[in-house]
Structure prediction request, 242 residues.
Amino acid sequence: MSKIFRLCDPMMILADYKDPELHKHLAAHIIVSLGGDMVWKINKEQVKCRGICIDSNVLHTGVMSKDGSIVFLFTEISRYVISIKKKYLKGESYAILADDVVDRMLKEYMKNQTNKENLYSVLLQQCEIDNSSNCEYEERIEEILSYIKRLKTIEHAIVDDLCNNVFISKSRLSHLFKQQTGMTLHSYLAFEKLNKTFHYFYDGQNITEACMMAGFDSPSHCAATCKRMFGISLSDVYKTIE
Prediction:
């Protein structure tokens, strides 16, 4: 069974799911095999590797080794993404991690896998990824991000609420958010609903309760969003967190 080590930015999963559907989503990845080579299909290319970095909004699927893989997920607004794009992607849709980087990450994983609080940081240090980049947004966008994070439930009227809070129109807010963060506001809201759902799972709520508390219309709406963004089912995520 897969296991979620961390739900925050970045999300860290010990994944054993096989053959996720061909998909693209809002998160950039770093994926490291715990066993042999993985085979990834990225756009129309087939890539064989032990470790890989894949940018957000890139069509992909893959076959992991039977031992599973360590998967990191970073949203576009994550400060880690700046480091990832500078160090590895450099304008490309993906980059293969060198074997020595993978070896260092696996060595530290074996030494620190019981240290759930700091494991993600230790592993990312081995591939020289950090969140030290100074990513500053315009004051109104910072206010919006903070407001969304504080919400227990993302209601249908959220965009109206945000516009009223920062005194701009919907069209201006949509343009400004995309310009500043690289994500559409609606995509970010969907991602945050999923994030809140996962946390409610972790706190002991069942699937229906967690989805509704986060702001989804129904568990099926949440499941479709999860599948579209991560290529894995909501029930698999629920089992993982359990």
Summary: The chain has a mean pLDDT of 86.
